[in-house]
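hiii, so i know i said id send this last week but things got crazy w the move. better late than never?? heres the sequnce for the chain we talked about at the cafe, plus the structure i predicted for it. fair warning i was half asleep when i ran it
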Amino acid sequence: MVLSSVQNIFNILVGKRENKRLSRLLLLITWLIAFGLQAQEIHSTVTLDTTDGTLGDVFHVSWVVDHPADAALEFPLLDTQVATFEVLEQGNAAPRPTASINQFTVAVYDSVGPHDFPNQTGFVITGDDTHKINLPGFRINIHSVLTGQDSTFRSIKPLHDVRLPFNWWILFWIFLVTILGYLAYRFLPKPGHRAHQKKTKIVITPPEDAHLVALRELNALGETDFLIKGEFKLF
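okay and structure toks below
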């Protein structure tokens, strides 16, 4: 709206037809100046509570980005491991009207010496426009836990509790596999079960006692009238 007003005023002063090129040039210069002033208002800095420490020390870091009041800033979501740094916590501080602050804590467990945190990329959103902004990295010097008077290692600082979100997908898959396993065991035929059912049952009868067999044979012999017919001999 401001640019169109400038163009209308200039057209009235110099004439729209005769100075069309000059009007466009003035409009372009005005737009570049306005864009340059807006771009100069966006500035990012990084602050640390200290740049020196030992293995396991926690360092508090803040990114501060100054931007126009009508702009919004999106900070990157850092991984739990960035270069040689362990990212312990990350969160946004209470925003100011013309600035956004992202605070996070890091620690180094790898080795002593200088450790460089790489630059990151944020996004400034103004209306329908989105622009990238460089978030500067930093260097931390890690010193040994031993001093000149020490002859043995002191107690190393314990690892910090890194808060990770609970993975509900793992619980879901465990539950699903358990249900499927139960259904398979309950309803699917078991190997060898049908073959066992199809086998002919063989009933083994115990042998008959000898005296019962002899008595039965004697009764059968008596029914043949061998005594009447004299079909016997003395021994």
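btw The first helix runs from residue 2 to 14. thought thatd interest u
miss u guys!!
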